[in-house]
Design brief:
- The complex is a heterodimer of chains A (291) and B (127).
- Chain A is an alpha/beta fold.
- Chain A has a single domain (3-289), classed as 3-Layer(aba) Sandwich (Rossmann fold), CATH 3.40.50.1820.
- Chain A is 34% helix and 18% strand.
- Chain A has an eight-stranded mixed beta sheet with strand order 1-2-4-3-5-6-7-8, sandwiched between helices.
- The radius of gyration of chain A is 18 Å and the shape is globular.
- Chain B has a domain at 2-63 and 93-113: SCP2 sterol-binding domain (Nonspecific Lipid-transfer Protein, Chain A, 2-Layer Sandwich).
- Chain B is built from six helices and five strands, in the order ααββββααβαα.
- Chain B is globular and about 30 Å long.
- The longest helix of chain B is centred in the C-terminal third of the chain and has 9 residues, at 105-113.
- Chain B has 127 residues and is of the alpha+beta class.
- The chains are: A alpha/beta (291), B alpha+beta (127).
């Protein structure tokens, strides 16, 4: 039998967007599928857009949503800007992270996009809801909390005598919940194994230090920008309690705790995750129609 | 349980191969009981129960009995599902020169998880 019998393209289109971000020229890799409300997906620290492969391929979602995911600069197929070798180290700050997302959203001319991010992405959507409530139609924070205290020495993630891919994936491997299949577990970890030197560590600077939003989180106005938080019960980085604590301080925020899942719901257990995401997307769709 | 560590690890050819560059000694403290474990090119060469007078080791993992019991359950509950979950909750202390541990994290996570009861299915949490 010819191998062509089982060959097919996914409906996902990947392209490179050339634009200025943070005062430098960037070549950012963007994937998208579907039509309708823009759903801008933000991957976790040290990973890339492949985490959203199931969302981009879900026909029930893409019939009403234009699902867009991009690799942050330094991640996946978005190389660092020219001159990166002169930097002492890569560090993601809250300011830069917000500017990158706004830059991409404006370059794509998205109309009231829904921002959905996981982990660092789950944290930054809280910053977006606070600082740009009228730009976004809603935010969905996966594994989102206001702050995470450092609990291990991140120096181990970037030193020449420890393999970066092995240690980054090794550090996060336990964050995956028992509902993940072996295939999705190791797909998720492979993304971590492919991260560039120091990139995961640089993202964690935002996650554990610079991105702390505890002092400001209560000022989020969900009447201007609705907030949905979904977290997996096995995550010990951003634990369900961390998410519940954040939600309790955002008036009007809606929370779902997802049984059996960990820190990477969309990638480790796409089917189970979409069951929880679907009612949220349905609600946003209804709100938009009544707009 | 810990007595089985040598047999379990050494019978797992894939795990031994993954640890082929690992030769070290580490201390596993379960409540008040220390265990000294020697690793030679990925194989567990000895497991010795303390107390010790002058034990030599490169790194140590220390946690209360109930933390290890939770970690070694067949289906660990949230908060017990990984060595880093125990570290995050400040119930496990990792001490000493942890370079071999961090450089071979997948190997050591699986060595420690190998104490879990054998399951018919593939391990639900493949730490």
């Amino acid at each position: 039998m010819s191998s062509a019998v089982n060959a097919s393209f996914e409906p996902v289109i990947g392209r490179y967007l050339n634009l200025d971000l943070l005062g430098k020229r960037h070549r950012v890799y963007v994937e998208e599928a579907g039509q309708g409300i823009p759903l801008l997906c933000l991957h976790t620290a040290g990973s890339d857009t492949r985490q959203f492969r199931a969302i981009l391929n879900n026909a029930d979602i893409t019939k009403n949503y234009r699902v867009i995911a991009f690799d942050l600069p330094w991640h996946g197929k978005s190389s660092p800007p020219a001159g990166w070798r002169d930097l002492e180290e890569y560090r993601l700050t809250s300011r830069d992270y917000v500017d990158i997302i706004m830059g991409v959203s404006e370059a794509l001319q998205l109309d009231k996009p829904v921002a959905m991010g996981c982990s660092i992405g789950g944290r930054i959507v809280l910053h977006l809801a606070l600082e740009h409530p009228d730009h976004f139609g809603a935010v969905i924070g996966l594994q989102a909390g206001a702050h995470v205290d450092p609990y291990y020495d991140t120096q181990w993630l970037h030193r020449p005598d420890v393999h970066g891919g092995e240690v980054c994936a090794g550090v996060v491997s336990g964050l995956i919940g028992p509902s993940a299949t072996e295939e999705n577990r190791w797909e998720t970890l492979w993304h971590y194994m492919q991260g560039g030197p120091g990139v995961f560590k640089g993202d964690l600077y935002f996650y554990k230090i610079d991105g702390d939003i505890r002092e400001r989180i209560a000022a989020i106005d969900t009447t201007r920008c609705p907030v949905y938080l979904l977290s997996g019960e096995y995550d010990y980085s951003c634990s369900p309690q961390d998410t519940l604590d954040a939600a309790s301080r955002i008036k009007g925020a809606q929370v779902t705790i997802m049984q059996g899942m960990g820190h990477f719901p969309m990638s480790e257990d796409p089917t189970g995750f979409i069951d929880h995401l679907a009612p949220v997307l349905e609600e946003i769709l209804k709100m938009r129609k009544g707009r | 349980m810990i007595e089985n560590l040598q047999e379990r690890v050494n019978a797992d050819a894939r795990l031994v191969r993954r640890g082929r560059f690992v030769t070290t000694s580490f201390l596993l403290e379960v409540g008040d009981t220390p265990w000294l474990i020697n690793v030679s090119e990925g194989r567990i060469s000895s497991v010795t129960k303390g107390p010790f007078v002058m034990a030599r080791w490169t790194f140590a993992l220390r946690a209360p009995q109930d933390a290890w019991d939770g970690f070694w359950a067949q289906q660990p509950q949230p908060g017990f599902n990984d060595i880093f979950a125990l570290i995050r909750r400040r119930v496990l202390r990792l001490e000493g020169d942890m370079h071999p541990f961090m450089a071979n994290l997948f190997y050591f996570k699986d060595v420690l998880a190998s104490i879990r009861p054998a399951s018919n299915n593939s391990p639900a949490v493949h730490a």
